[in-house]
Amino acid sequence: MTNLTHLNIAQALEGLKKKEFTSVELTQAHVKATEEFRHLNAYVTETSELALKQAAESDARRAKGQVGLLEGIPLAIKDLYCTKGVRTTASSRILDNFVPPYESTVSGNLFRDGAVMLGKTSLDEFAMGSSNTTSAYGNVISPWKRNNGDNADLVPGGSSGGSSAIVAARAAMGATGTDTGGSIRQPASFTGIAGIKPTYGRCSRWGIIAFASSLDQAGPFARTVEDCALMLRSMAGYDPKDSTCADRPVPDYTAALTGNVKGLRVGIPKEYNVEGLSPEIAKLWDQGKDWLKSGGAEIVDISLPHSKYALPVYYIIAPAECSSNLARYDGIRYGVRAEGESLNDVYMNTRAQGFGDEVKRRIMIGTYVLSAGYYDAYYTKAQKIRRLIAEDFARAFEKCDVILSPTAPSAAFAIGENQDDPIKMYLNDVFTIPASLAGLPGMSVPAGLDSQGLPLGLQIIGKAWDEETVLRTGHFVETAANFTAMPQMLMKKAA
Ligand code: GLN
């Protein structure tokens, strides 16, 4: 039998259909890989037993001819998605003992379509971060190493770092992420896999623990664009339980992967040529333009003049919303409680002990920008600029169909680097945050390696609801880049 963990989802579905192997066998191979890669600390909770049970049920369904879109495919679920009866922590001490009595709509959609759950992946606490170093359960380690022999442990990106690390390690075929300002695209870029954040409202947020409600979106990670398309089709769709979830038909995203970019107008925003952009990344970006041009696409210069305000605007709006969303963790209704002499003491002790430093920093910033006297100066102003950023994109999309940019300004850094400087950490998302503020779909596709042997991604941003063109462009870039590199530890295993 072929190495089952090296198949992608589309190939595995084919193999299952042809009865070359069963979902139980496929899942067993991934459970074994989960154990082998435990040192990456990608999971908060492994659910191997549940996975094998779900796989057996899937095989039974398949035998009866009931075959869902992702029938029998083992996936990992970010531990921000509430999973019925399975501990869900948001990687925070404050939810250490939280077992949801309900299933998030998106994970429920995946199970409805036959997916199998390997476990709940670690994240930056409450999805706040870019390195998966703020989890209460420790750092997640990327399966990648630099080729300079320093053997430093690298970050898998964040906040969905457990998901990106485990998919890159080929211990899960795909995983869910959430992206508020870049948490799917940046970790995908850091670990050499694909990931898409759909349009805001494409997937239901119901049952996904809220960070910043006007920005949070669910999306998939997988090793190919086609697999992302398959997963997104299952995850997306109208849900009356989320009033911001759009009542729109979900297209067959795989049908959009035509391989044809003839006549496609690809916008290059001049403002994304930020100071300090590494020459290697600039080169890859040029390479991306050349690939698209050789496929018959037209490269057009565009301007997104308010881009420079995106980070400051995000770091007002996201903390403002988080300070409100996280007010519910008071030790009374959810999770862990620290005792105290009065009710106020219970609140204060619970929150002091339950939240980590980054979460506290954001709650404080958010409370400040929403406070009387500062609300207009910060929050209202940020909302106005957010509108201008969205209008920049609307204007740009009169001239182009998609936008091409780097996903992140650097390759993965070592654990601990950037840690003492929150602003430097926040800069990771300069290219991803503008599209988040505008609610637009964005995807990262692995496109090359830097001189240290680390993956770099290219980002494709699309018009609202036009995930199909994003995926088509991503698929074209993926094919042109022919990214076959794997983390060294996997090559050793294969050898
Ligand atoms: N890195 C960004 C932040 O820290 C984005 C996180 C996310 O998308 N969840 O807020």
Strand content: 5-15%
CATH architecture: Alpha-Beta Complex
Number of separate structural domains:
1
Number of strands: 11
Unreliably modeled segments: none
Number of helices: 16
Mean pLDDT: 96
Bin the helical content. Answer: 25-40%
Task: Enumerate the distinct ligands.
Answer: glutamine
- What's the assembly state of these chains? single chain
Q: Could you tell me how far the N terminus lies from the C terminus, measured between alpha carbons in angstroms? A: 17 Å
Under CATH at level 1, the class stands as Alpha Beta
What's this, in brief?
The chain is α/β, with parallel strands linked by helices and 495 residues long. 37% of the residues lie in helices and 13% in strands. Helix 2 (23-36) packs antiparallel against helix 3, helix 5 runs parallel beside helix 6 (185-191) and helix 9 packs across helix 11 (357-369).
